[in-house]
Amino acid sequence: MGRKHRDNADSPGENALGVPLAMWDFDHCDPKRCSGRRLVRLGVVRQLRLNQGFRGIVLSPVGTGVVSRADAALVRQHGAAMIDCSWARLDDVPFARIRTTHNRLLPYLVAANPVNYGRPWRLNCAEALAAAFFIVGWPEIGDAIMANFKWGHAFRELNAALLDKYARCESADGVLQAQNDWIAMADREAMAREQQLADYAQINAGSDS
Predict the structure, then answer these.
(1) pTM score
(2) Which of 50, 57, 121, 160 has the greatest count of CB atoms below 10 A from its CB?
(3) Number of other residues whose CB lies within 10 A of the CB of residue 174
């Protein structure tokens, strides 16, 4: 009774997880490997049509800010959706016909899916949607989404420290600062490793002479 306002054309009804989840699919990926389509088949996510709106946050390439705890109330009331498209084919996506208000981007994270394991910025649909819930402070929903995949547990494990940092940020600016600090630290560590390898190679070269 108290949730009738959610059951309209602009707000998909709740699923078994108790929160509206949706996606627009533009057929840019292999349907056999698409995690978003799998979630649709399982009834976890509802597929939306063009011109159909969504009142929660939407993970979109045209997002104007990153997901943060500031979005928590909006996500709890109206849920989260994603636009499943290729970044290489953004010109083919009619964003003007996707009725959204709260477009968001994700901060730096590393993929754990079998196609792009270990690669930053290469999350699939399920990982992206779950990441949003981990960041806004609703980890049980993130875990429930990833539980639909054999490899799903690896996503949170691989990004545990970073997701924890993001979840403690109260604003999008805080998330961006945490992201930039993390990337800077990773760059410093990579440079240190390269220097160690160079020093080791020089020592070996000297010992061989």
Answers:
(1) 0.84
(2) 57
(3) 17
Angle among Cα 104, 113, 29 to the nearest 5 degrees reads 70
CB of 80 closer than 8 Å to CB of 56: yes
For residue 87, report the phi and psi dihedrals to the nearest 5 degrees: -65, -20
Model confidence pLDDT, tens digit, residues 111-133: 999 999 999 999 999 999 999 99
- Is residue 39 within 8 Å of 144, Cβ to Cβ? no
If one compares 35 and 199, the residue with the highest pLDDT of the two is 35
Contact 106, 131 (CB under 8 A): yes
Handedness of CA 155, 158, 160, 166 (dihedral sign): negative
Measure the CA–CA gap between 32 and 91, rounded to whole angstroms.
Answer: 24
Classify residue 58 by burial, with Cβ atoms within 10 Å: 0-12, 13-18, 19+.
Answer: buried
